[in-house]
Amino acid sequence: MYVKQGANQQARTLMKSLSDTGRVKLVLAWGQYKQALSHSQPAEQDSALALFREARQLGSATGQVKWRDESLYALGSFFLTFDDLAKGEPYFQQVVRAKQRQGDKKGEAQAWFRFGAGFPDNMTGKFTAERLRYFERAQALARQTNDRSLAALSLMRIAFIHNGAGEQDRAIKELLTVVAMQEPIRSPDICISYEALSDIYQYKGDYDKALFYLLKTIKSVEATGEQQNLPYVYLQLGGMYRQVNENDKSVAALQKAYAIAQRTGQPPRTQVLIAHGLSFGLCEQGKKQEALAIVQAVVRKNLPLDPEAKKILLEAQVDCYLAMKQYKRAEKCLLESYALNDKVPANHTLPTSRLLGQLYIATKQYGKAKPYLDELLAAKRGLVPAKTLANVHAYAFLVDSAQGNYLGAIAHFRRYKTLDDSIFDATKSRQVEELQVQYQTEQKEQNIALLTKQTQVQQARIQKREFQRNAFLAGAVLLALLLCVSYNRYRLKQRSNQLLEVKQQELEAQQQEINRKNQALEHVVGEKNELLVEKEWMLKEIHHRVKNNLQVISSLLNSQSSYLHDSSALDALREGQNRVQAMALIHQKLYQSDNMARVDMQGYLREIVDNLLESFDRCGTVQGRVEASAVELEVALATPLGLLINEAVTNSLKHAFPNNRCGTITVGLAKLESRGYLLTIVDDGVGLPSDFDPTKSRSLGLTIIQGMSRQIHGTLSFGGTGGVTLHLQFEGIRKDAQTAAVAA
């Protein structure tokens, strides 16, 4: 209790030093943390609700629509998490009605999507019609506003609902449409679609298609570089290989998932799932003690688990005890798991029923096993994987045989064989195709060899006939001559054969030398590639550390501001902090990008403008627009350009909109048809005084702007009526110039 009170006091102290926006962010994050704890610690539920209500008050006080909406979303999702639609719906409806009054269809689509996504993912059957309606509205509005990403995500959620209702074929059709929408826009969420398709095909027993989409999932996740998501994907791959009886491959995939999870840290549920899958595979390999040790290590962690995760951990122990024939311990864990059935969705109770049936069959208690097997056989289509269903029919065959119900036993055996054969056909179809291709290739090669041999035989026959005719005409004299020539040729052939043998030995020696040099060259190339990879990672680490150091400087400036009361000093510190932030963004962009030499200016400009608006607390009164084409600039050019933009936008925020006047600041960057680029910064504020000459000003901001423009050899000009317009025309840095700059 003391630790919790200390943490709460520290959070309250931290809030005093934050801006209004920062307070809302902190309280929302704090509430979400408390809500996550409430699943295992119900006492935290009231604390989470109180924090969300506080966030709503703070969000309204800021006057910013974004934080008002986020606090309403948080409150609505809180009640939906606890199945209280009547209390949760009004909060979402407030956001929806506000967007409708504003005519903001894009925002309304987002609100409907957040409404549907506010329900817990493990909900089955409950509020299905409402969730389906919310996502359908979100999809329709997203299509109207050409928001392809949100339209795809909405249809994906619709497919999930149909799959949960047992409509697998319909869900597959919808998910294939989602993939077709996400691939052209390179959506980062496409891996979720691939994984969902793999999961449905696996339950249907179409393991070739399931494996195809699961491998695409792995490739997609690895391409993002997000190591955090890899353990769960490799967990899925391990389960897939286990379904097709490739246990060694299954264990290898699960060990990889386990290793990455140990390195990256994973949510408790993922840790339990990996331990369950890996322990099962090790038991299949006969490594029972090693499997039990992995499960017990997770048990000893005493992780905060929801009821479903507790069931999975108990079932992992059961697998080990069954493999070790410790049936009493297995039954104890299974009965504990069965007692949790009322707290989890219906489809998540089925593994416990399967294990109970398996246990009672192993102990020859067939009467106890039958109800659990009947429960699995009566489950809705799609809830039991095809492989598991085949095994259930095999168990039912044993039960009916033992009880003398031979007709039922035969029916179950036939069903088992049908399912098992269909699974075999699905998993082996690709191999059959490969064998057919190989067979056709061999047939063609044999035909070519046969034609070559026939040609050689025909040519030999022709030569033989010619020889007989010549021999007949030449007579004995020619025969003697032929014998001499033949003898001479025989000697020549012997010499030729000897020379050929020597030459062949020399060629073999040369080939061995060439192979040795090739191996050495491959080794050198491999080392070079490793050095290049290490260099790239080192560069990324340097940029990351530079960014972190700049962030530390920014934080020190922010901390220093709490001890100052002079407004001029505070303004100077804030401007210095913004300059540091502009440089830090460069290094952040570089270590997050695959291109270590160039910066994506479109995203960079957007982040500079958003950061300045938030720093000056003008998000509600001044609108920042970025109209930049897809331009990538070298680091030596992007850094001074970012500082110049930082100063120009800062001047506009300080002087163009006095007394909280509303307005717009537009930053544009375009590539000219001729060589070079044009930067434009425009505000619609009060404008410059009539007697003000920017070129003669000695203010720090304008001095930096002029200095940066000279550094990049740009042409700077000011103008505009009813506001201020800055134009800067410059050229890209040439290689020689860049080299000189780096050397300097």
Automatic annotation (TrEMBL):
TPR repeats lie at residues 231-264. It catalyses: ATP + protein L-histidine = ADP + protein N-phospho-L-histidine. Its EC number is 2.7.13.3. PANTHER family: ETHYLENE RESPONSE SENSOR PROTEIN, TWO-COMPONENT SYSTEM SENSOR PROTEIN. Residues 493-527 form a coiled coil. InterPro entries: Apc5_dom, HATPase_C_sf, HATPase_dom, Sig_transdc_His_kin_sub2_dim/P, TPR-like_helical_dom_sf, TPR_rpt. It comes from Hymenobacter negativus. It is an enzyme of class 2 (transferase). Residues 636-732 form the Histidine kinase/HSP90-like ATPase domain. This is histidine kinase. It holds the Pfam family HisKA_2. The keyword Mitochondrion does not apply. Keywords: ATP-binding, Coiled coil, Kinase, Nucleotide-binding, Phosphoprotein, TPR repeat, Transferase.
